[in-house]
Amino acid sequence: QKEVEQNSGPLSVPEGAIASLNCTYSDRGSQSFFWYRQYSGKSPELIMSIYSNGDKEDGRFTAQLNKASQYVSLLIRDSQPSDSATYLCASRRGSTLGRLYFGRGTQLTVWP
Amino acid sequence: ETGVTQTPRHLVMGMTNKKSLKCEQHLGHNAMYWYKQSAKKPLELMFVYNFKEQTENNSVPSRFSPECPNSSHLFLHLHTLQPEDSALYLCASSQGGAAYSNQPQHFGDGTRLSIL
Questions:
Q1: Which of B68, B81, B59, B76 lies closest to B13, judged by CA?
Q2: Candidates B101, B112, B113, partner chain A, best to mutate (most A CBs within 10 A)
Q3: pLDDT confidence of B98, banded at 50, 70, 90?
Q4: Residues A50-71: what's their mean pLDDT?
Q5: 3-state class (DSSP) for residue B40
Q6: In angstroms, rounded to a whole number, what is the distance separating the alpha carbons of residues B75 and B66?
Q7: Which of A4, A13, A61, B98 is the residue whose CA sits 20 to 30 A from A94?
Q8: Contact B20, B77 (CB under 8 A)
Q9: Spatial separation of the C-alpha atoms in residues A8 and A10, rounded to whole Å
């Protein structure tokens, strides 16, 4: 049973466009959601966390959570070539420490 | 030095060797984790330590043996590994305790392990 699913991509957008990354999760007990960015050969880097339904904005990044639909998304506005990376969606159940479920990641390429 | 540091960055070993991976965090966290990242697969949680106590073993084969001497250090001892164990091994840390269960995890740069 796959806990977290993402479109593997690759997703390719031109510089300046909005990149939209999507994620669905199967466990209705999930309460915390995270987006990590991973450059090739590097470790995952946390870029957004979201816990409540709705939107959360941080600079060019907006995370959206819809618990009824079990759906999380990440929007990247004004995409830059430096945003080219693999984006990992992760969910965590209730208060269970450590049990992060990751998707396979979506590879994003932003071309100049 | 800040963040989560892993050594070595790369490791090549034979199936009969014994080696150890090291992780050190300078974030004041109390929970530490080992993950395995294989090509085309999601990150897999291996072990969780909370305040030096192992709280989770995700059905990991006994050829992987973790050790957590204190909240800042985490080791993964390796012996008689198999070719399918070749992967990127990532260490992460976060605030420990149930009150901080929603806190994100911060990752080290990983050890790229190749088994000959």
A1: B81
A2: B101
A3: low
A4: 95
A5: coil
A6: 6
A7: A61
A8: yes
A9: 6
Count Cβ atoms within 10 A of the Cβ of residue B14 and give its class: 0-12 exposed, 13-18 middle, 19 or more buried. exposed
- Nearest chain B residue to A51 by CA distance is B102
Residue A90 C-beta-side C-alpha neighbours within 13 Å: 29
Residue entry with tokens 């990983």: B110
Q: Which amino acid is at B81?
A: L
Other beta carbons within 10 angstroms of residue B109's beta carbon come to: 17
Residue A83's SS3 state is helix
B96 contacts in chain A (CB < 8 Å): 97
Q: Which residues does chain A have within 8 Å of residue B74's beta carbon, measured at their own beta carbons?
A: none
User: CA A62 to CA B16: how far, in whole Å?
Assistant: 48
Name residue B51's amino acid: F
Q: Is B85 helix (H, G, I), strand (E, B) or coil?
A: helix
* Contact between residue A13 and residue A112 where contact means Cβ atoms under 8 Å apart: no
Q: How confident is the model at residue B40 (pLDDT cuts 50, 70, 90)?
A: confident
Radius of gyration of chain B measured on its C-alpha atoms: 14
